[in-house]
From TrEMBL:
Residues 6-77 form the Transcription regulator AsnC/Lrp ligand binding domain. This is Lrp/AsnC family transcriptional regulator.
Length: 80
């Protein structure tokens, strides 16, 4: 399992619509938050090991209506 965090920059007024689409249509979604700053949303995704992260981001996330830009963080180890 791969864990990635993706920040979304949305077109004005579209952040809640984008969050709704992500939650409803992508089973890989763990959590999504609205944020302040340079990006509007922060989402956590769990991807199967065989899934190509680049294809997931460019084909599944960047194509959502209202998404202007994304920033992806790939994680290595979770500490608890």
């Amino acid at each position: 399992m791969q864990t990635i965090f993706v920040q979304f920059k949305c077109h004005p007024g579209q952040a809640y619509d984008v969050a709704d689409v992500v939650v409803r249509t992508l089973e890989e979604t763990s959590e999504i938050y609205s944020t302040s700053g340079h990006y509007d949303l922060l989402a956590k995704f769990y991807l199967p090991a065989e899934v190509d992260i680049g294809h997931f981001v460019t084909n599944q996330l960047q194509t959502i209506d209202g998404v202007k830009d994304t920033f992806t963080l790939v994680t290595f180890k979770a500490f608890s």
